[in-house]
Every structure is written in C-alpha cells, then in structure tokens.
Amino acid sequence: MTDLLELKGVEVSFDGFKAVDGLDLTVAEGELLCLLGANGAGKSTTLDLICGKTEPTAGSIRYRGKSITRIPEFRRSRLGIGRKFQVPSVFKELTVEQNLEVARSRHPGVMRNLRQLGVRRGNRLDEILELVGLADRREVRSEYLSHGETQWLEIAMLVMQDSQLILMDEPTAGMTIAETTQTSELFRRLRSRHTLVVVEHDMGFVRQIAERITVMHQGRVLAEGGVAEIENNRAVRDAYLGSRGIGHA
Amino acid sequence: MSHRWFLPLLGYVVFAAALLVVPPILGDNVFLLNKFSRYLALALPAVALSLSWGYSGILNLGQGASFGLGAYAIAMHLKLVASASNANGLPDFMGWNNVPALPWFWEPFHSLGFAVLAGIAVPVILSALLGGFMFRARIAGVFVAIITLAMLVVVNLLFIDQQRYTGGFNGMTDLAWLKIGSLEFDPYSRAFYYATAGSLIAALFAGFLLMRSKFGLVLQAIRSNQERVRYFGYDVARYQTVAFAISAGIAGIGGMFYAMVLEFASPTFMGVTLSLSFVIWCAVGGRESLLAAAIGAIVVNAIQGSLSETFLDTSQLLLGAIFVLVVLFLPRGLGGLIDDTAGRLRAIKQRRAAEAARAAKKTDAAGPGVAQREATP
Description:
The complex is a heterodimer.
Chain A: E1 3-14, E2 17-28, E3 32-36, H1 43-51, E4 58-63, E5 66-67, H2 73-79, E6 81-84, H3 96-103, H4 110-115, H5 123-131, H6 147-161, E7 165-169, H7 177-191, E8 195-199, H8 203-209, E9 212-217, E10 220-225, H9 227-231, H10 234-244
Parallel strand pairs in A: 3-8, 3-9, 6-7, 7-8
Antiparallel strand pairs in A: 1-2, 1-4, 4-5, 9-10
Helix pairs in contact in A: 3-6, 5-6
Chain B: H1 3-26, H2 30-55, H3 63-82, H4 92-96, H5 112-136, H6 142-161, H7 163-166, E1 178-180, E2 183-185, H8 190-212, H9 214-230, H10 236-262, H11 272-285, H12 290-310, H13 315-329, H14 333-362, H15 368-375
Antiparallel strand pairs in B: 1-2
Helix pairs in contact in B: 1-8, 2-8, 2-10, 2-11, 2-12, 3-5, 3-10, 5-10, 8-9, 8-10, 9-10, 11-12, 11-14, 12-13, 14-15
C-alpha cells in the first residue's frame, strides 16, 4: 500500500493555544483509519487541516506525494478529498435530489454548469437514493427531513461526490442503534472504493468498522494500532478511555 | 416535466400574456401606458436584484450604480442625437460649462450599438471587478451590502462632480427618442411599451432558465451554505462574481429603458434612495422568485403612484409601513408565502403517501380491505 496522505510536524495554534502540536500521520490508500481522543484532543482540527478549513502554522501536508499545505479548499476537493461535518450540513432550501446534484461535482466549472439544466436523473442517482433509503423523499426540500434522514443525505452526498479520500466527523452522532449498524454496513461498502478517515466517539461503532486506530491526545498522536492493541494500551487507558471506561464512551 | 417546472413556468407565461394585453386595455390612455412602461423598466433592476440577493445571497445595495450607468450610456447617445443641430454637435450643458469640443469618450456614443453595448458592458465589468475582489476575500453578508452601497455613492458623486461631461446635478435632459432604422420609439407609444415589456419578459425567461441550470443550483447552494459548497470543489468566488455581473447587466438594461421612458437621465437614478427602493420592491414581492420580484416592483410603484396622487405627503409613510409589515410578517415576501404553502402541502402529501404505503404493507396479512381503508386519507 502506498501513502495517500501524509502529515508531517503539523502545528496549529489559536491565540497561543496549540490545538495540534507536531502531528505526524500517514494514511495509506484504501485504508480505514479511526481517530479517537477526548474532547479537545485535536481530531476535528486534524480533519480541518486535511480539507483546508484550517491552515497549519507549521509543518506540511502531502496528498499523493504533492504538497497541499497552502492550497484552497475547493482545489483540495478537486484533487479528491471529501468531508462530512460533525453538524449535518446540507442545503436546506434545496430538495434531496438537488442536494445530490450539487454533490455531483466532477465538473465544477461555471461555463459547463450554465449549460446543464436541472438535476441529471439516472441510475447513479437512483442507486444512491436507494442506498440511503431516501428514494421516496427525493423531491422533498431537505429542511423537512428528520435528523436521521439529514445525516443520511449528507453521507449520500459524499458517496455522490465520489472522493478518493473521505473525512468523516462523527458520522453516527445522534443516530439510533439500528441506524448506526446500517451506517457501519455502508462503511464496509465504501471501503472497497474509498479511503476513509473517521472521527468517532462510539467505541461500539469503532469496533465494527476500524482496522487501525490512531489515538490523539493534546494535539499529538498518543498511540497507533489495531483495535485490541489500543484497548489494552495503558497510556490510552490513562489518557482517554480509562477515564470513562472502555466501550462505554 | 415535473411540477417544479410546470407551475412556475405557467406563472411566467401568464405574466407575459398579461403584459401583452395591457395596451389594448388601456386604449388611448397614453399617459397611463407611459406609466406602465416606467414600471416595467423598474421591474428589471428588481429582477436583477432577485438574481443576486434572492438566489445567490448577495445583498447588493448598490444596484442603482448599474442601473444609472445603463441610463447614462443610452442618454449620452440620445443627447448627441438631440444635439445634432447645435454648434459642433455639442450637448447644451457642455456649452454652459465652456467645454469647447466633444470629449473623446463621448465620440463613440454617436453609435446606438455602442451605447447599448456600453450600457450593459460597463456595469458588468465594474461589477465583475468589484465582485472578484470582494468574493475572493470572502466578504459576505452585511459587508457586501456596505461595500456595494459605498460603490454606489462613489459612482454617484463622480457623476455629479464631473458636471462638464455628465450634466452634474441636472443630468441630461431633452433626450431624443430612440430611433432604430425608420422606427421611432415615442415613450408614449405602444411600440415603446412592447419593447420594454419584451425586454422584461426576455430577462425573466433567461433568468428562469439560468436559475434552473446547475449553475443556478450551485448558487442556491452557496446562499444556503457557502462553506459546504467549497468542499465539493466549486470555486465559490467565481460563481458569485458571475452572478453579480449578470445581475448588473440586467440592471443596466433596466436603466436604459428608464432613461428613455422619462426622456432624461439624472444622478438620482444612481442615488441611494432609488437603489434602496429596489431592495424594498424585491422584498415585498419575494426575492426568491424573479417573477415575484418583478411583480413586487410593478405593484409597489403602482401603489406609490396612486397613493401620491391621493395623499401626497403621507404616501412615503404608507409605503414604509407596508415594507415594515412585510419584513415582520412575510420575511420571504408574497412569493415566499405562496412557495412555503406549496412546499408544506407537498411534504404532507408525500408523507401521507409514504405512511399509506407502509400501512398497506403491514396490513397485507390482514387482507386488502383494511389497507384500503387506511390508505384513504
């Protein structure tokens, strides 16, 4: 496996507070990496750094061997980096299928999109709507969706976007147990085509999906390894899991 | 064609048909016809504002600048035509200001084609430059409003200050009628009305298609959540700049008709009052629909016209009251009210259908009779 993404000595400080402090992280192509850590450990900031929401104060970020440290978000997205945010963010005033049309962004240029009229219906749209169970809601404005449906819509948008690297910030937040199980099934399907970096608190969910876990603590990598390895790691227990009891988090 | 297309399109067609039958209804009342032409000219900047504000979330308080630039461009041409018999063909106000010869930048305005092109291109280019700078810097919301307002004031002051070339406070009066070939457009004529109505209808339909293109969809997504759109790979600033510039072009066309219908161009066309009025019309009609914005402009102007005949001084007060009430109780305007109701009904209908389908599935074992009873709302 080759490295898809590489962060080296990355630092971010907000008014002197170092949210990320000398972070080294590599993600191999086709991997599913879980980021764990207590609140404020720097997990979301790490995702922000990769997708371009936050600029590092030091260090470098490389994607497919090329530096992306200083390029704007939309260019990173065009290179194949997709992001799901912690708070489900869809376009409220647009319908479900319009949301998905915006997510279909292989051709993001102005001129080309001036020529395309409306939503391009077809197998791919149907498949994705079916996949997330929104087939009968396609023409509903997304502000009328339930919280769970909104989460699914955003995941569907990421599938539509078809990024090589997908960054997910707490994809199961606010989901029921059944929905969480469904999500883990979806993740297994995504695995075959995409590389995923997932921030997650739910240890049960992490056990279902993860192969490799990176635990962060105070802006640095505390430990890396398989699920069992991490669960038995003393430093991790002390810093994070132990405080609330493993599996309970 | 889904209902998302059909119903709005039907609205546009009905509106267009209504505009076309106005002259036969008014008959010989040319003063009223001229008034209507004026309302239609003013509907154009409202449509333009709906494009940038309603669809793209760019609150442009300086739309008057584009409108005024359009008006001055055509006025320069018509002034030259009217001044043909003067010494050196010099416009009267230049004579009063001791300008010896026609300035070089006035020369090309002898050509109608150039004037029309300039009336569109100048606002477009100015807006593209300003927009490019603003949106690259990720300026949004209220700051866009402040910057566009500032630009309006700058352009306005510039035109007032350069009295020698623009007529200053008085602007340009006594304009000739527009003449294309042997066809003369008397602003009190049906031909002029139809030209104005035709432009408005064309702008509405072009805007309708534009906003239903994927470009329009991305703009609406940007309005809804700018940040999110960036992570799908769209160059948000470029989309906003293009929308801003297109909007300026339409406002410029409106300004041209406005100058022609009033037969003069004045700095008030790019004044703060008129520019803010565009916002009011747009808000009353409903900024999220081009048609609603156009109707808002026409209705508010018609009300204003008749109120000012009856109440004189208090008409502005009444108008202000209408605006306050709309903002308080119908933040999305009259068009928004209709749209909200339709959307809610649709959602209820779909949910009922889905529930009925579920109920039918559940009660399959119990026999078809039960399912049927449950499925009927």
